[in-house]
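Sequence in, structure out. Go.
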Amino acid sequence: MRFDRVGSEEDLFRLTAGIGFLPYFKNEIPGWSLEENVDPAVWFTSNEGPWEWKGRLCRDRRIVYGKFFRGRAAFVSVTCFPDLCNWRRDGYDAEGYRDDGLMRHSDGLILDSLEKNGPSKGAFLKNTSGVKKGFDGAVIRLQMLTFMIPRDFVYDLDRFGRPYGWGKALYDTPERHLGNDIVNASSGFSPQESMERMVRWLRGWMPDVNEEALRKALR
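Output:
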């Protein structure tokens, strides 16, 4: 399975907006990834490519990016993200999820820091939350639950003010970055209805893929 070749930031936006969910790397469903549909000239080369584009697309709220599928990175359209939130959160908001004892204590401490201090890099969250052991795993869990997302990627600067190295995620809550209206747009559906809506959306683009395979991928 192949989609339109991604060779620019706008190509990446259009593909994500269309297909709804786009894993960054190869996975169990052949052809369903950016890696398999990107122009090699922009795939981790000295040219600007997806690593740089994703920060701008997140910052402008054109797509949502995070470790959403089995702890691995993916792009999600703003249109489909509300159903992913409704499914993953099982209909809860963050407060209710914690009140019912469904959130790990370490994850709650990180989320408390994020909600108190605003958009934060990982190192800051690690220090302010006091979560040292298992911090990286907690950050992934919070993204999988859609309670935390990268809103941008920021770079260190050299002594001349020039960016260098890999961009570091600047985390935020989806509610603060995207707005409550977007995050809760699917709250009128049950979590299972949101799952079926996501499956139907993907089936429209990948009609030959078994529905159970799509459900498994979205879990």
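Check: The chain has a mean pLDDT of 94. Strands lie at 21-23, 63-69, 72-77, 120-121, 149-157, 163-172.
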